[in-house]
Structures are given as C-alpha cells and as structure tokens.
Amino acid sequence: MAERKVRVRFAPSPTGPLHIGGVRTALYNYLFARQHGGDFVFRIEDTDTNRFVPGAEAYILESFKWLGIQFDEGVSFGGEHGPYRQSERRDIYKKYVKQLLEEGKAYIAFDTPEELDAKRKEIDNFQYDAHTRTQMRNSLTMSKEECDQRIADGEQFVVRFKIEPGVEVHVQDMIRGEVIVKSDILDDKVLYKSADELPTYHLANIVDDHLMEITHVIRGEEWLPSAPLHVLLYQAFGWADTMPLFAHLPLLLKPEGKGKLSKRDGDRLGFPVFPLEWHDPKSGEVSSGYRESGYFPEAVINFLALLGWNPGTDQELFSLDELVDAFDITRCSKAGAKFDYQKGIWFNHEYILSKSDDEIAELFAPIVANNGVDESLERITQVVHMMKDRVDFVKELWPLCSFFFVAPLEYDPKTVRKRWKDYSVQQMTELAALLESLDDFSLENQEEKVMKWVEDKGYKLGDVMNAFRLTLVGIGKGPGMFDISAFLGKEETLKRLHKAIEVIPTLQSTSE
Ligand code: GLU
C-alpha cells in the first residue's frame, strides 16, 4: 500500500468554551502534522443539536488564532473535503447508514425511551446487544412489512450497529500499544436517529475520518472506550486498510493529582481552564481565560506541551518550532498528567525574561497611560529593564513600579516606625544638600559621593539608605536606590526628599 500523506484533525463539538485539555489535544495534533509534513483539519462535530451552544465555534477559532496554532483545512479555512461542519453533511451520512442497513450490518429499532427504561429496570446492567436484541422491537424481530409500515406511518426509529459477538477487536494505539477488546462487551450503538434525521457522533466521526482521509486520530483518553466500536465501523464499511492509527492522550488531572481536572478546580485555586474568557450566553456567567489573565500564548503552549509528554532531556523552554522538532507522540505517558498550574505561571515568568525590554514596554505602556501618566516609551523601557525579573505577568508591573512615575502620596506607617529615626531628618537634609550640589546626577557619581559622605560622617549606611528609600518610594521595597534616584532625576529626587522631610515627622507624632 502506498504511503499516505499524514492527515490529522481536531474535531470539537461546539457545546461551550474549549477546555484547556482540548487545547492540548489540538496542539499535539498540530505538532504531529507539522513534523510529518502533513495536513491539519478543523472539523465541527455538531450533530447533537441539543447541546449546541451559539458562539462556541467562533470562540474555538479565536482561541487557536491567539495561540498561533494553524489549520490547513476545515471550517473557515476551506479545502477539498468539505463541508467541514457535520450539520451540513446530512445527506452524506444517510447514504452510509443505508449501506450498512442493506448489508445487514445495522438494523432499525423502534423501542421508545420508556420501553428501554423498563428493560433497564428489569435486567441488571442491561445493554442492547446480541443477547437482548431478540427481545426488543426492531427489524430483526419483526417482519419487513411491519417494519416498513411503521416507518410509513411516521413512527420514530433509530438505526443500531449490529455487533457480532465473540470477535476480538484490535485497536492500534501509538501510546498504549495494541489494545484488545472482546466485542461482547460492546453494545449495539445508535448510529442514526429519524427524529432529527441526524447521525450520532460515532457514525459521523468514522464516515468523516474516512472521507477526509485521516491517517492518525489523536484525541483525549475519554474516547478510548469508543475506539473498538470505531474499528468495527471501519471494518463494516470495508475501509480496514485505511484505518487510522490512534493515540489516546493521558487525562489532565487536578493539581493535587487525584481525579479529572475540572472548571471547579480552577475556581477553587484561581487559575483559568479556558484559553480565552468565556461569557456563557445562557447564564451570563463569565469564566476567566489565559489570554485575559495575562499569559503569553507561547507560555501556554510550552506549558501544555509538557503535560503528558516530555522530551527525555532537561530542556523545558520550547518555542512552537522547537516543539515540532522535539515532539514524539510515542513518548506520551499513559498515566494522567497533574495540572500543575504554578508551572504555567513559572513559564509565563520565563517568557517575560526571554522577551526584550522593548517588547514588554510596549505591553506595559498602555497600562501606564491608563493610570494617567504621560511617559515616553524610552523611560518606560528603563523601568521594565529594572523590574521585569520581579514579575510573572505584565499587569503586576504597575503596582510594583508606580513610584517611578508618581511620587508617593503616603508613607507606609510600618516602614516609618521601623526606618525613620530621630536623626533621619538631619541625615536626609544633609543628603539633599549633597545631591543638590551634584552636577553629574548619574548613578555612578551619586553612589560615589554619597558613600564618601556616609563614611566621612560615620553614619550607618543602612540607616541612610532605608530612610532615603522611604522618601522616594513610600515603602521599604524596590530596586537599588541609585537606580531609582538616577531614573527620577535631580529635580524630582530633591522634591520627594524635601516633602518627606517635612511630612514624615508629623506622621510620627500623630501615630504616637
Ligand atoms: N467531537 C469529539 C469531541 O468533542 C471528537 C472526538 C474525536 O476526536 O474523535 O471531542
């Protein structure tokens, strides 16, 4: 058989926002397609009309745009295997349902939901299969005439797949190896419903994977139980020799390790489980997203890539292109991957460090402007240079850096009590006079002159610097003092010093 071009697909059902686990599935598909020079198809599986949520498809597309995961073909991208929305492929599925019926590989069943419920009550662990189908109301137990008559009378029916018992079903999984299941444990799954004239997920999924020439099915572990049925469907249609290879990805687990990751874990521990913020059209509920929380898309990709796969080396930082080279689906783990969201924050920090000061400044500048400060990009970049290693997110810069742009409005009482001594007014007045006398206000010159003065006077350096910091920053934290004063410049530094010398002693007397 000729080597087929690798073709994979991401096939979400538009039932709500895309879960972060779905993003990882799409990412692994993308990496697999790219590294094999293959195609990546975007298909919408919307045959379950009851669960359809408006806006979900657009949300999913926007998520991938933000993340930089590109498709070659599919809904909104076009291609030769369309339409790519299953709701637009009804006639195609009907033809294949008919084929299975004609070949006796599927049958029509009229059992109502009430009748099925009654059976479930009557028989423990009831399943519709070779043993029970003979007791049910279907085309195998009634005459063709009766069956045709019921359909002609408009009675609703479903089409069920007729699973032969006693067969070993082999699923070839790139992560799990060969998975073998006895057909006896499978039930005669519904493939089509007359009520909405739509196929179920299973039929549409297989027909489309075949028609779209999919070679590898990479999807979440929750689909592993469906895989034997999918293999049998491929065989029933006579497509066994183009059966895709499967890869069922490990589950994403709660950060604590036990149980499946859920939205509630995110709410409880304060991390998003969706790529973008999601506004539920029905309830109006808003769920946080990685984008709006200030994550870089590269950081999200890098974080997700390592949840369930590892390169077998110490390397942790990977660009998307590096991932394409390094990724190996067969190295994915079978065991679930703990969703260590702190690691996601760590990645974001690393990406802040790896980006240039200019890039971060571009992102920080609008925040500075929104706080009513008119500063040049150049000076904002200087601040970013001094401070970016202290934050995980760009939005954390403002609270940490506002003193560079705005003089303190108040002085932290605890720091005042601890750092402002009886002699601080005198020392700060002398310091102000010294700084006033400097023509060269560079960091180096200030440092040299101030150090000499401290030494000549026999002052404690800590006393001087702590009080000085309080006057310029208003709190006891920040970068190097002369970094700050050099940035503020002579005029602003002196202004803040003089004001503090005046105001802080009044605070002390009132607080005593
Ligand atoms: N529509 C399914 C989902 O929502 C696709 C599963 C598969 O990839 O086969 O995940």
UniProtKB/TrEMBL annotation:
Its EC number is 6.1.1.17. The keyword Aminoacyl-tRNA synthetase applies. Coiled coil: none annotated. It is found in: Cytoplasm. It catalyses: tRNA(Glu) + L-glutamate + ATP = L-glutamyl-tRNA(Glu) + AMP + diphosphate. Gene3D superfamilies: 1.10.10.350, HUPs. Keywords: Aminoacyl-tRNA synthetase, ATP-binding, Cytoplasm, Ligase, Nucleotide-binding, Protein biosynthesis. Residues 5-343 form the Glutamyl/glutaminyl-tRNA synthetase class Ib catalytic domain. GO terms for cellular component: cytosol. GO terms for molecular function: ATP binding; glutamate-tRNA ligase activity; tRNA binding; zinc ion binding. A motif ('KMSKS' region) lies at residues 260-264. Its main location: cytoplasm. InterPro entries: aa-tRNA-synth_I_cd-bd, aa-tRNA-synth_I_codon-bd_sub2, aa-tRNA-synth_I_CS, aa_tRNA-synth_I_cd-bd_sf, Glu-tRNA-ligase_bac/mito, Glu/Gln-tRNA-synth, Glu/Gln-tRNA-synth_Ib_cat-dom, GluQ/Sye. It is an enzyme of class 6 (ligase). Residues 360-501 form the Aminoacyl-tRNA synthetase class I anticodon-binding domain. GO terms for biological process: glutamyl-tRNA aminoacylation. A motif ('HIGH' region) lies at residues 12-22. ATP binds at residue 263. Catalyzes the attachment of glutamate to tRNA(Glu) in a two-step reaction: glutamate is first activated by ATP to form Glu-AMP and then transferred to the acceptor end of tRNA(Glu). Belongs to the class-I aminoacyl-tRNA synthetase family. Glutamate--tRNA ligase type 1 subfamily. HAMAP family: Glu_tRNA_synth_type1. Monomer. This is Glutamate--tRNA ligase. It comes from Hoylesella timonensis CRIS 5C-B1.
